[in-house]
Amino acid sequence: MSDSPAAPSRTKASSIKAALASVSPVPGAPKPDAIFVGDSITRSFGGLAAVDVSHLEVQRGSITALIGPNGAGKTTFFNVITGFDPPNTGTWSFEGSSLAGTPAYKVAREGMIRTFQLTKVLNKLSVLENMRLGAQGQTGEGLFRALIPALWRKQEEEITERALGMLEQFNLIHVKDDFAGSLSGGQRKLLEMARAMMSNPSMLMLDEPMAGVNPALTQSLLEHIKELRETGITIFFVEHDMDMVRDISDWVIVMAQGSIIAEGPPADVMRNPAVIDAYLGAHHDVALTESGESLTDTSVSLTKSEES
Amino acid sequence: MDWLTVFQNSLTQMIGVQAIIYCLAALGLNIQFGYTGLLNFGQAGFAAIGAYAIAVTVATLGWPLWLALFFGILGAIIFALLLGIPTLRLRADYLAIVTIAAAEIIRQVARSVSLNDYFGGSDGISGKYAADWYALNPLPVGIDTALIRFSRNDLWVVINGWTLVAVIVLITWLLVRSPWGRVLKSIREDEDAVRSLGKNVYLYKMQALTLGGVIGAFAGVIFAVAAQSVQPDNYATTLTFFAYAVLILGGAARVFGPVVGSMIFWFLLVFVGQALNNAVKAGYISSSILRPDQVGQIQFMLVGLGLMALMIFRPQGIFGDKKELALDER
Ligand SMILES: Nc1ncnc2c1ncn2[C@@H]1O[C@H](COP(=O)(O)OP(=O)(O)OP(=O)(O)O)[C@@H](O)[C@H]1O
Ligand SMILES: [Mg+2]
């Protein structure tokens, strides 16, 4: 964010760590200051219970990771709480107001902005136009006001200004006039994330943001996400890259077969036998290192779910 | 008939009443299909509503034309809501099915025997119902030159018709360059992405369907006023498909696409028909190959072939952008 404090003092980061230190690392643990609270959320497809979450809270201002093996139900959970997929049961609230049954566009207006695992860029619009679409409360988006450019031109200029700044940060400025459809897979991921940021989310939900992004850029994006935390944005993300999870998360929630099986600070979670079982199966014979290296390697080989 | 007349007729039709009608129908489809991706296959139904609103209120009830116009627009809005409310939340193909059926229902109702007193059955309604409006015509005479020829009344219709087209083109141009237009184009690309950014997709689709439908109703209004009659069978699915041909010929999602498409379409259609006719009569084509009464069919076959060739060699239409089309193949 252009208006974020430039100094990497990371004051928020340490206060969030401190706040979460007192949270007991058990599934469904209550948080001292939860921005999101979900209860008995279930979603099944035919006989398969894709999501069965009895209780989940996300700490305000934290970077919270949602991990789990392929097919664990992470994307489905995201879809349900953002209004894209109707649940079978469940209630959830965001910033204190209930969002169950709220249509997706209203969820977004409440400040929960999500990206998609399979990127959804608008192919025949330029990269810059994609970005502009993300801005909220646009005067010119009304049918009749649209006819009078004088009403919205100034706002459009401000939006463009902000979009250009954002594209700069996401390394997309050189392709701003290209069709979004001509971008590479990794660039699309970046564009989608940048576009979501245009909406000024209070909670940014990213579904595998780093899949397909080159390692050099990953580093700068991780820094960027940490910067976002300093501005007070909550980040709730799904990711298979354990290095990234370890690097940036304040808290990790592990999902397997639809349920939350573990929660805790990243280092603890990756040492948790239940988590390792979930990833590798109960009868693994892989030696586990303190740093969780074997888990990292395995999950990398499990990840290739990107871009159908 | 000689070649000059063939040319004169073709040019006249290029900017004539039919070209205006199909241009208007295609302008509506451009908002719906071109920009928003809504498959409205019932544009003929919207045109029928516009036409019958004029015919029924003015000819049968004796109301003034402006009031009839108001009812035409209102009717189109109601029709759009009826079609849109149940279908716009569903997948795109549902709208296509529902609109094609609904337009046919309108036509069948209009031509039904039991409603003969209101709609005139299959003969429709005719009469001098736009006489007041024609009386406003300040032009002393029509136009008769080597290139174009219009009667005094037709000229009045054509001038007003193209003015209406110009106004709608201007509105379209303003809209598609606005943030509203950006939302529409985004919906065409991926609705879920648009939803995830806090836009009420359903509302936008409804607005696009309604706006395009009202423009389609104007096509019917012009038709009814120019012919001073309405016949239900003029509003069959052919009208919709010709309008799509016009739109795709000119280039979908281009502001001027429907205008150019309609002009070319009508020029070609009339030119091919009249040239064949002329050639047969003059003996250039022997009657063992083509009889004069077969010209009508051959005319459509040739124009169809031409459209196919266009789709093969210039699939983006005349105004379209090839780069944009190539994105679909990724
Ligand atoms: N639309 C659907 N219809 C039927 N089954 C579905 C549907 N969507 C998801 N599922 C099933 O629900 C389960 C959870 O899928 P989901 O996409 O949420 O997993 P995930 O945790 O995001 O996995 P990944 O890490 O591979 O993205 C899977 O078994 C999947 O097959
Ligand atoms: Mg997923």
Please characterize this protein's 3D structure:
The complex is a heterodimer of chains A (308) and B (330). Chain A is α/β, with parallel strands linked by helices and 308 residues long. Chain A has twelve helices and ten strands. Chain A has helices at residues 11-21, 74-81, 104-109, 127-134, 143-146, 149-169, 185-198, 215-230, 242-248, 266-271, 273-280, 293-302, and strands at residues 34-45, 48-59, 63-67, 89-94, 97-98, 112-114, 203-207, 234-238, 251-256, 259-264. In chain A, the strands form two sheets. Chain A has a six-stranded mixed sheet, with helices on both faces. A four-stranded antiparallel sheet of chain A has the order 2-1-4-5. In chain A, helix 4 (127-134) runs parallel beside helix 7 (185-198). The model of chain A is unreliable at 1-7, 287-294 and 296-308 (pLDDT under 50). The termini of chain B are far apart. In chain B, a hairpin with a 4-residue loop joins strand 2 (143-144) and strand 3. The longest helix of chain B has 27 residues, at 201-227. In chain B, strands 1-4 form a two-stranded antiparallel ribbon. In chain B, strands 2-3 form a two-stranded antiparallel ribbon. Chain B is globular, with a radius of gyration of 21 Å. Helix content of chain B is 70%, strand content 2%. Chain B has helices spanning 3-14, 17-35, 43-60, 65-87, 92-110, 116-119, 131-135, 152-176, 179-189, 191-196, 201-227, 237-250, 257-281, 295-313, 322-326, and strands at residues 125-126, 143-144, 149-150, 229-230. The model of chain B has no long low-confidence stretch (mean pLDDT 90). Chain B is built from 15 helices and four strands. Classes of the chains: A alpha/beta (308), B mainly alpha (330). Chain A binds chain B through residues 82-84, 103-106, 108-109, 113-116, 120-125, 129, 132-134, 136, 138-143, 145-147, 149, 152, 156, 179, 181-182, 195-196, 198-199, and chain B through 171, 174-175, 177-183, 185-186, 188-190, 192-201, 207, 211, 323-324, 327-328, 330. Bound molecules: adenosine-5'-triphosphate and magnesium ion. Adenosine-5'-triphosphate (ATP) binds at residues 45, 48, 50, 68, 70-76, 117, 305 of chain A.
